[in-house]
Design a protein that fits this description.
single chain, alpha/beta, TIM Barrel, 10 strands, globular, binds iron/sulfur cluster
Length: 291
C-alpha cells in the first residue's frame, strides 16, 4: 500500500486495514505533537483512494475493520466522504466497522444527520483527542479547540449512535498545572461520557515545539509518579455511564485497564499503592516507552 509518510492509528485498530484518505493533519499546530509536522495536509483524490482499494481486493474477504487515516480524516467534506465510504463498503463484503480520527471542529461541521449517514455506511467509532479538560492548557498547547466544543462534539457523536473514544495526555499541564489538568480532565471526560477513554503520557519528541519550551526551561515535565498522581485524579473525577478506560499505550509508565464506574475503587487503590511504594522498577522502563 503506497502510504505517504509514517502512518499512525489508535492501538485498538492494530488489526484493521489502514486506508489513507488524508495526508497529515488539518490543524497540525499542537505544540506537543510531532507526528505530522513533515506532512502538508491534503485530502487524497477519489482516484488515488480507488487505486489503493484495488490493491486490497485480493484479500478483501478477510477485512472486517477499516481505519481511515491520517489525522482528522473526518474533516473531509460530506460530499466526498460519502463516496469514499461507499467504495470501502463495496470493496470489503464482510466489513463490520470503519474507524476514523476526528477533532471537535470537524465533528461539529457535520450535523447529526450527516453523522447518521456515515453510520449507515458502517462508521462505527470516532477517536477524538481531548488531551486536557482545562481550557488554559488547551490554549497554551494550541489545540485549537475548547472543552465546550469537545463536549458538544461528543454529544453529536452520541446522538448519531456512533461509539466515542477519547484520549487524554498525562503531564500536558506541566508540573505547575498538573493537579488542575487532571481534575478538569476527569470532569470533562464525565461530560463527554465516552464508551472508551485512554490516557497517554506526554513524551517530548522533536520536532514538537514543546520540546524547545522544555529545553529552554519554560515547560517542566512531571515525573513518572506525578503522572500516576494525575492518572488517579482523572479516574477519581470520572463520573461516566459505562466506559472502558485504559492506559495501555506504550508511552505510559503503568498500564491499567478498567471498566468504569464498576472498577473505580479497585483501580484507584492499585494506582495509589504503586505511588506509595515509589519503586521505579515497577514502572515501564524509560527505554521501552514510545509513541
Ligand atoms: S495532536 Fe492531533 S490535532 Fe493536534 S497536531 Fe497532532 S494530529 Fe493534529
Amino acid at each position: 500500500m503506497p502510504y505517504v509518510g509514517a502512518i499512525y492509528r489508535p492501538p485498538s485498530e492494530a488489526r484493521s486495514f489502514i486506508l489513507q484518505v488524508t495526508v497529515g493533519c488539518s490543524h497540525n499546530k499542537c505544540t506537543f505533537c510531532s507526528v505530522y509536522k513533515d506532512k502538508k495536509f491534503q485530502i487524497k483524490s477519489l482516484e488515488e483512494i480507488e487505486e489503493d482499494l484495488k490493491e486490497a481486493e485480493p484479500f478483501a474477504q478477510h477485512i472486517r475493520r477499516v481505519f481511515l487515516a491520517d489525522g482528522d480524516a473526518l474533516i473531509i467534506p460530506q460530499r466526498k466522504l460519502i463516496p469514499i465510504m461507499e467504495m470501502v463498503n463495496k470493496t470489503f463484503p464482510n466489513l463490520e466497522r470503519i474507524g476514523i480520527y476526528g477533532n471537535a471542529k470537524s465533528i461539529l461541521k457535520k450535523s447529526v444527520d450527516d453523522l447518521k449517514a456515515l453510520k449507515d455506511l458502517k462508521l462505527g467509532i470516532v477517536y477524538i483527542g481531548l488531551e486536557s479538560g482545562n481550557d488554559e492548557i488547551l490554549r497554551k498547547v494550541k489545540k485549537g479547540d475548547t472543552t465546550a466544543n469537545m463536549i458538544d462534539a461528543a454529544a453529536r457523536i452520541h446522538a448519531a449512535g456512533i461509539t466515542l473514544s477519547v484520549t487524554v495526555i498525562l503531564g500536558l499541564g506541566g508540573k505547575e498545572m498538573s493537579r488542575i489538568h487532571a481534575i478538569d480532565t476527569g470532569k470533562v471526560l464525565s461530560q463527554m461520557d465516552p464508551e472508551f477513554a485512554a490516557a497517554l503520557s506526554l513524551m517530548l519528541v522533536p520536532p514538537a515545539p514543546l520540546c524547545k519550551e522544555y529545553e529552554e526551561g519554560r515547560f517542566h515535565l512531571p515525573g513518572p509518579f506525578e503522572m500516576l498522581e494525575e492518572l488517579a485524579l482523572i479516574i477519581a473525577h470520572m463520573d461516566v455511564t459505562h466506559c472502558f478506560f485504559s492506559s495501555n499505550h506504550a508511552s505510559n509508565y503503568l498500564p491499567v485497564q478498567v471498566w468504569l464506574p464498576e472498577g473505580k475503587e479497585e483501580i484507584l487503590a492499585l494506582i495509589r499503592e504503586v505511588i506509595q511504594r515509589h519503586d521505579r522498577n515497577i514502572l515501564r522502563p524509560e527505554a521501552y516507552r514510545g509513541l
